[in-house]
Amino acid sequence: MRMRRGEAGIVGKIILVWLVIVALIGIAALDGGSILFTKFRLSDTAQAAAAAAAASYKDTPNEAKACQAALVSIKQDDTQAATAKGWCKVNPKTGEVTITLHRKAKTILAYRIGFTEGLTKVVAVESGSPSSL
Q1: Which of 5, 84, 92, 101 counts the most CB atoms within 10 A of its CB?
Q2: Band of the pLDDT at 133, cuts 50, 70, 90?
Q3: Cα 102 to the center of its chain, rounded Å
Q4: Percentage of residues in the chain with pLDDT exceeding 90?
């Protein structure tokens, strides 16, 4: 059975379409993984900073020193994490510290598309309380 010239072109086009679809699925998986990894990493950084700030506040009840301890922890853990106004809040009654961090996930395609660009902007909000020991 011989394949006609037009049929060979159709098979080639189908293979090309499938390769493009597989490539797009692969890029979406990589971008999604990068966003999730950034979220987990930033959350860990914020949690460690909140714990450091809460410990500092327990030792010396000074909000500025507690936030400075959090900043030192952040810079040691993740130099690309960003802070914004109100990023460090201390509850003077309980000693609980809430840290808010921002970071943009490194993606291949998601940051270039308008409706997915917002997904690359990761925010982590974590709280830490002083240890009761």
Answers
A1: 101
A2: low
A3: 8
A4: 80
Which residues lie across from 32 on neighbouring strands? none
Q: At what angle do helices 63-77 and 5-59 cross, to 10 degrees?
A: 150
- How does DSSP assign 94-133, residue by residue? T--EEEEEEEE---SSGGGSHHHHGGGEEEEEEEE-----
pLDDT band at 4 (very low <50, low <70, confident <90, very high): low
Distance, CA of 24 to CA of 106 (rounded, Å) = 17
Phi/psi of residue 88, nearest 5 degrees: -125, 115
Rounded-to-integer distance, Cα 13 and Cα 36, Å: 35
In this structure, which amino acid lies at residue 88? C
DSSP letter assigned to residue 82? B
pTM, rounded to two decimals = 0.83
Contact 61, 93 (CB under 8 A): no
SS3 90: strand
Which residue has tokens 């900073």? 49
35-66 residue pLDDT tens:
999 999 999 999 999 999 999 999 999 999 99
99 sits in which H/E element:
strand 97-104
Of 86, 104, 103, 97, nearest to 129 (Cα)?
Answer: 97
